[in-house]
Amino acid sequence: MSEQDPVKLMKQQVGKAAADRVQSGSIVGLGTGSTTAYTLQYLGERIQSGELKDIKGVPTSFQASVLAKQYGIPLVTLDDIDHMDIAIDGADEVDPNKNLIKGGGAAHTREKIVDTLADLFIVVVDSSKLVDKLGSTFLLPVEVMPLAITPVMQKIEKLGGKPTLRMGVKKAGPVITDQGNMVIDVKFDSIDNPAELEKTLNNIPGVLENGLFVGVADVILVGEIKDGKPLVREIS
Ligand SMILES: O=C[C@H](O)[C@H](O)[C@H](O)COP(=O)(O)O
Predict the structure, then answer these.
(1) Domain for residue 194, yes or no?
(2) pLDDT tops 70 at residue 2
(3) Amino acid 75: pLDDT
(4) Record keywords: Transferase included (predicted)?
């Protein structure tokens, strides 16, 4: 048997566990990232096998809508629905109060719109994402209108943050979000009050949304490896 990458294994397990919680007839927020990619894959498999019927997906990004189409998950927009039963999404950091940093894939603005509408918001992560304090391993993403990049960075510096414009990996120039904006990643020495920082940042003119998700997640599913075997732990 070939050796499997343990992080991939944890993501697979947890992505599948979340997909198993979706019931027929549900309207489902479809998250973005490498972990929820497995959720979408398993949702598609359950649909194809006939076990899961009549679900509708609301994508949180271009990536999520491409994968949903690939896996045969019917899509609707927010204009077509009056409620959302469940949303499943990944995270870059999760603290002990189930607060999150999201936006490693620059999708946090649409994710926050969709995830906060759901009756049940399930977060899927591998165990490396659990932190004692938000901001300790990951920079905080902030989506900003391009014309406001300089004043927003100056205001964030005055708040004690160190902002960097996110640049493309294979593209020369900045990362552009699905909404046509840019992302700055901010290092704060210590995020002591995530709820206050979330509001303060969103109050800067030109900021669309930041990646702090405070008091939003209902359940965290954590993929772990114990004694060489993958398992899923629930924090609720
Ligand atoms: O913008 C991207 C999202 O917030 C992702 O859900 C987050 O970055 C986690 O992604 P992954 O599951 O690939 O670590």
Answers:
(1) yes
(2) no
(3) 98
(4) no
Q: Could you tell me if residue 30 is inside a domain? A: yes
102, 121, 125, 177: residue to mutate for ligand 1 pocket, most atoms within 8 A of CB: 102
pLDDT for position 171: 87
Among protein residues, the one with the nearest Cα to ligand 1's atom 6 is: 90
Please say if 234 is a catalytic residue. no
Give yes or no for residue 4 having a pLDDT over 90.
no
Cα 33 to Cα 143: distance, rounded to the nearest angstrom = 17
The residue whose CA is least distant from atom 12 of ligand 1 is 35
Atom of ligand 1 nearest to the CA of 106: 1
β-pairing, 93-94 with 56-59?
A: unpaired
Residue with tokens 């077509």: 80
Q: Which parts are annotated binding residues for substrate?
A: 32-35, 89-92, 102-105, 129
**150/114 same-domain check:** no
Residues 6 or more apart whose CB falls under 8 angstroms from that of 21 comprise 86, 88, 122
Answer yes or no: is 1 within a domain: no
What range does the domain containing 205 cover?
140-209
Specify the pLDDT at position 230.
Answer: 87
Would residue 103 count as lying in a domain? Answer: yes
